[in-house]
């Protein structure tokens, strides 16, 4: 997955895998969380919204099955 750096106080980068519809988010606290079944438009919106944290809290967190990865992307 290719990670795209983002400007955010909580998130360092985001990536999306088209084949599996998996969104991967790397956080500043070193957590990396994958979300399954995320549509491409959600990833595209995530890339362009001003507040990444607000978008994450309102649109992604708790809305898709998640899996925590160990370490950095």
Can you walk me through this structure?
This protein has 73 residues and is α+β, with helices and mostly antiparallel strands. The protein has 2 helices and 5 strands; from the N terminus they run E-E-E-E-H-H-E. A 5-stranded antiparallel sheet has the order 1-2-3-4-5, with helices on one face. The radius of gyration is 11 Å and the shape is globular.
Brief sketch in words of this structure:
The chain has helices at residues 40-48, 52-60; strands spanning 4-5, 11-17, 22-27, 32-35, 66-69. With 73 residues, it is an alpha+beta fold. It starts with a strand and ends with a strand.
Topology overview:
Layout: E1 4-5, E2 11-17, E3 22-27, E4 32-35, H1 40-48, H2 52-60, E5 66-69
* Low-pLDDT segments, ≥5 res: none
Order of helices and strands: EEEEHHE
Number of helices: 2
Number of strands: 5
Biggest β-sheet strands, sense, barrel:
5 strands, antiparallel
Q: Name the structural class.
A: alpha+beta
Strand order of the largest sheet: 1-2-3-4-5
Mean pLDDT: 94
Helix content: 10-25%
Work out the strand percent. Answer: 25-35%
Q: What is the molecular shape?
A: globular
Which radius of gyration do the C-alpha atoms yield? Answer: 11 Å
Distance between the termini: 9 Å
Q: What brief labels describe this structure?
A:
single chain; 73 residues; alpha+beta; five-stranded antiparallel sheet; 5 strands; globular
């Amino acid at each position: 997955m290719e990670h795209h750096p983002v400007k955010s106080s909580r998130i360092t980068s985001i990536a999306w895998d088209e084949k599996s519809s998996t969104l991967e988010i790397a956080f500043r606290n070193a957590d990396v969380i994958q979300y399954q079944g995320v549509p491409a438009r959600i990833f595209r919106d995530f890339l362009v919204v001003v507040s990444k944290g607000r978008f994450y809290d309102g649109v992604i967190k708790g809305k898709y099955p998640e899996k925590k990865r160990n370490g950095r992307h």
